[in-house]
Amino acid sequence: MVRSNYYYPQSVELYGLAHRLYEGLSKDLNYNVMLSQRGMVNLCHSTAEMEVGARTVNAMQISGIDAELFSPEDVRRVAPIYNFSAGARFPVFGGIWQGRAGTARHDAVAWGYARAANRLGVDIIQNCEITDFIIEGGRCRGVQTTRGTIRAERIGMAVAGHSSVLAEKAGFRLPINSYALQACVSEPVKPILDTVVLSPGTGVYVSQSDKGEIVIGGGLDRIPSYAQRGNLPTLETVIAGVLEMFPIFGQLKLMRQWAGIVDVVPDSSPIIGESPLPNLFLNCGWGTGGFKAIPAGGTLLANLLASGKHNDISRPFDLDRFASGRLIDEAAGSGIAH
Ligand SMILES: Cc1cc2nc3c(=O)[nH]c(=O)nc-3n(C[C@H](O)[C@H](O)[C@H](O)COP(=O)(O)OP(=O)(O)OC[C@H]3O[C@@H](n4cnc5c(N)ncnc54)[C@H](O)[C@@H]3O)c2cc1C
Fold it and tell me: What CA–CA distance (Å, rounded) separates 83 from 92?
């Protein structure tokens, strides 16, 4: 999912940049990333959620984000297959709508970037694990890898899932907990859902891929873990939520389920900036929402590596916010409960 409906001005700048860059990405990379801006609705299942929704939409509109408060009728218009029946377990009181939000194909984004970087002369060395850092005179001077040593004046670390493991090797700690995040897809069916539906209350999000599969994502597993498979009780909760909201999916067969490890930070915002080890720069802590931020995360890290300095967009996301207390709490904006 790609969207930029976050709450705080700092996040609006960051994700807004990413969203705009996504809109031109296929052209920039000369590779179709299959961005489909089909709109996305965050459902509100109670009056209280609706009040928070209104506050969120107001904050977004003040920051210039294209957010709208949806009534139940609006939700019915974009997602008519939702379970609107009386007595439904997750009734719809309305929702937060972002029309420019949507989906992109994740493999295509990775392939597109790899191909474009390669064209610019960047070496991408696959299956090459960083095992340690070369530290000389109190500064990072390079990395040890399973395929030899690489020295550099500045090093960028973007190793989600293992940020704290690598940080420990570099001699510092990060405020990160790592969890498995799961998703699954059904067998393909004819077009039936042409928007993205997210239910923060149940921790479920649903969309339909171009191939027709129903793509279902869920909340984080409850226990920190590096095991890349995800646990069954979480999947069961997610599927139960989907079936309550979309009983029509009850007969679908699931084809695939997987999990990736995401690095979660206490304020659910990323960490971008120099690490406590000089010359080593961080780009981590994107939690469950780093895909939508790829073009901005990459641009900001590149800027840091090239200049050694923050710009206005990356500055608020420095690690020092955990010392100053200037947190950017996007626990609600992240959509999936962190
Ligand atoms: C199931 C699932 C669904 C998601 N859905 C969405 C979504 O809809 N929208 C959204 O915005 N985000 C989503 N996310 C989150 C998003 O995928 C992450 O936030 C994002 O991929 C983080 O990007 P990254 O570049 O920091 O890390 P990653 O993409 O995780 O890449 C880190 C890389 O570092 C490598 N690495 C780790 N340790 C080492 C080492 N020692 N040496 C060398 N390499 C190493 C890893 O192999 C990996 O390739 C989802 C995540 C999951 C798991």
Answer: 9
Can you tell me which residue has the tokens 């950017």? 328
Inter-residue contact 288 to 262 (CB < 8 Å): yes
User: Which of 301, 330, 289 has its CA nearest to residue 19?
Assistant: 289
Of residues 105, 23, 104, 63, the one with CA closest to residue 333: 63
Mutate to test the pocket of ligand 1, among 221, 268, 286, 317 (most ligand atoms within 8 A of CB): 286
CA count, 13 A, side-chain hemisphere, 245: 27
Instruction: Look at residue 156 and give its three-state secondary structure.
Output: strand
Structure tokens at 141: 């001077």
Amino acid at 219: G
Q: What is the pTM of this model?
A: 0.95
Task: Please identify which residue in the block is written with the tokens 């070496």.
Answer: 123
Q: Is 183 helix (H, G, I), strand (E, B) or coil?
A: strand
Alpha helix positions (H), 261-326: 294-307, 321-324
87: CB partners within 8 A, 6+ apart? none
For 3, which DSSP code? -
Ligand 1 center–CA 161 separation, angstroms: 7
- The CA distance from 338 to 331, in Å, is 6
How confident is the model over 72-116, as pLDDT tens digits?
999 999 999 999 999 999 999 999 999 999 999 999 999 999 999
